[in-house]
Design the sequence.
């Protein structure tokens, strides 16, 4: 009436396996979207650059097309170069400055403070390959293609060295923004405690953008190292 013990054991083992498999399948099914957000440090790659790097922020949303490949969109902002210089000059009051005042000295001694900030925003598509998606430690590689806004900000403030009064004739401020196509590549690793859905990791990105502009080539290249948070 109760059936064979072997049959009952088989049914019990099968039921247990199904119960254990359901949460795993539910978790895998919930990993269709991968959301990332992070920030860190960005710096210019040009060896002739005189500036230091600054901050980097970004976010992405990807849809898993297979177990290891994901395709989506990303955007961010990188301030990859920022510096200030200061110095003193002698000004003749019209259109000339010199480091030394000629004798007899009748020039005005002025101080100049120059500031430059190079930055870029970007928006585009990204393809990510995940090497071991089933593990708690997940390496990945990315390729991206998008639109970049190359921004250059310059400011020069000049004051009388003795009184501190502004000298508007030698002061200026301006900003320019140019659009250009760009590419990116990245290597990252994320850690998901307990092999869960929320993780933290680090990613190194290389970005380059440019286009011909009149009689010169407008381009930038910079790197960013970010800490990122992931929901998968």
Sequence:
């Amino acid at each position: 009436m109760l059936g064979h013990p072997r049959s009952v054991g088989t049914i019990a083992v099968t039921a247990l396996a199904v119960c254990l498999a359901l949460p795993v399948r539910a978790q895998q099914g919930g990993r269709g979207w991968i959301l990332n957000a992070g920030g860190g440090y960005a710096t210019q790659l040009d060896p002739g650059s005189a500036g230091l790097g600054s901050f980097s922020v970004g976010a992405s949303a990807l849809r898993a097309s297979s177990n290891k490949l994901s395709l989506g969109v990303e955007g961010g902002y990188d301030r990859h170069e920022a510096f200030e210089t200061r110095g003193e000059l002698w000004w003749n009051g019209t259109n000339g400055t010199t480091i030394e005042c000629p004798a007899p000295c009748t020039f005005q001694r002025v101080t100049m403070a120059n500031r430059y900030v190079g930055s870029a925003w970007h928006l585009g598509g990204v393809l990510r390959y995940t090497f071991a998606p089933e593990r708690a430690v997940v390496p990945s590689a990315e390729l991206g293609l998008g639109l970049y806004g190359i921004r250059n900000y310059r400011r020069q403030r000049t004051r009388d060295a003795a009184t501190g009064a502004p000298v508007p004739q030698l002061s200026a401020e301006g900003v320019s923004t140019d659009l250009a196509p760009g590419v990116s590549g990245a290597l990252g690793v994320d850690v998901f405690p307990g092999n869960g859905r929320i993780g933290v990791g680090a990613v190194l990105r290389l970005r380059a953008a440019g286009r011909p502009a009149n009689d010169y080539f407008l381009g930038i290249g910079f790197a960013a190292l970010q800490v990122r948070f992931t929901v998968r």
Remarks:
- The chain is about 10% helix and 65% strand.
- Residues 1-30 have pLDDT under 50 and may be disordered.
